[in-house]
């Protein structure tokens, strides 16, 4: 009885296991592609934060340079308060830049670990070799973003610290001689700002290169160079020429003579000669 039941049980369980395996494989493929997209999005975030960081640091430096001008004639307390607020915004932005890097690192670890594992499952040697080369190229682009972001972060934090020091100095001693005393420090900070801009630009460029190379198929739409507008569409959009106004109809002559005594109507004016 039990032996007769066993083949029937196997016949029922085997197809279920096969279908379950197919579903799991499809789920794994979907999840890996999702992880690739998550990494892509996280690198886009790093790119955005590096651009905003450049704007915030410049805004704070410009206010410091305004305060340190020998001919400054503005509202000192108000401008100083704006300077302190700009430093606070710059420091918060530096924290956002730092926070954007960690999710990128976590996503990259998962993506490259799974990619390396899946390489071993590719039976076609040519496809496996191509995938390996592309993985290493993608990893190199990611590591370029990571290195550029780390370098920019260190420079940005040091720059914000210098801004904070200047705010503390001027907060207790803001007069002509004090401004003259820190003139060289402000000039040096302006030079360090150029270095910070270069490092943030490098981070932005590295992230942009990754985004352009690793975007999922269909995510980036490149415009064709030298594309000309559609002539038919232009012709349809162009307004039709206005029709010339028609010449007014000639007026019928009207008699201005008084009525005749015999009751007949007065003769009309003679028609004009051609």
- Give the rounded overall mean pLDDT: 80
Shape: elongated
- How many helical stretches? 6
Largest sheet: none
Structural class: mainly alpha
Distance between the termini: 128 Å
Overall radius of gyration: 39 Å
CATH topology-level name of the domain at 35-214: A middle domain of Talin 1
Helical content stands at over 70%
CATH secondary-structure class of the domain at 35-214: Mainly Alpha
Q: Which oligomeric form is depicted?
A: single chain
**SSE series:** HHHHHH
Low-confidence stretches: 1-24, 223-248, 250-258, 265-274
Number of strands: 0
From the coordinates shown, what is the CATH architecture of the domain at 35-214?
Up-down Bundle
Percent in strands: under 5%
């Amino acid at each position: 009885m039990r032996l007769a039941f066993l083949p029937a049980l196997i016949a029922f369980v085997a197809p279920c296991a096969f279908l379950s395996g197919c579903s799991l494989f499809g789920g794994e493929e979907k999840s890996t592609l999702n992880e690739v997209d998550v990494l892509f999005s996280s690198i886009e975030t790093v790119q955005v934060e590096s651009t905003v960081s450049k704007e915030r640091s410049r805004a704070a430096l410009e206010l410091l340079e305004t305060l340190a001008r020998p001919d400054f004639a503005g509202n000192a307390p108000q401008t100083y308060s704006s300077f302190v607020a700009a430093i606070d915004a710059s420091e918060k932005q530096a924290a956002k830049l730092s926070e954007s890097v960690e999710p990128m690192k976590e996503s990259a670890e998962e993506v490259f670990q799974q990619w390396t594992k899946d390489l071993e499952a590719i039976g076609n040697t040519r496809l496996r070799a191509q995938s390996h080369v592309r993985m290493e190229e993608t990893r190199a682009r990611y590591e370029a973003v990571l290195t550029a972001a780390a370098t920019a972060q260190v420079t940005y934090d040091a720059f914000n610290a210098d801004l904070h020091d200047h705010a503390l100095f001027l907060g207790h001693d803001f007069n002509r001689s004090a401004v003259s005393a820190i003139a060289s420090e402000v000039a040096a900070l302006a030079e360090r700002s150029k270095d910070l801009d270069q490092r943030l630009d490098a981070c932005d460029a590295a992230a942009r290169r990754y985004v352009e190379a690793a975007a999922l198929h269909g995510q980036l739409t490149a415009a064709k160079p030298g594309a000309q507008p559609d002539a038919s569409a232009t012709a349809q959009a162009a307004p039709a020429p206005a029709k010339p106004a028609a010449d007014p109809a000639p007026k019928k002559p009207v008699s201005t003579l008084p009525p005749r005594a015999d009751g007949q109507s007065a003769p009309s004016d003679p028609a004009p000669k051609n």
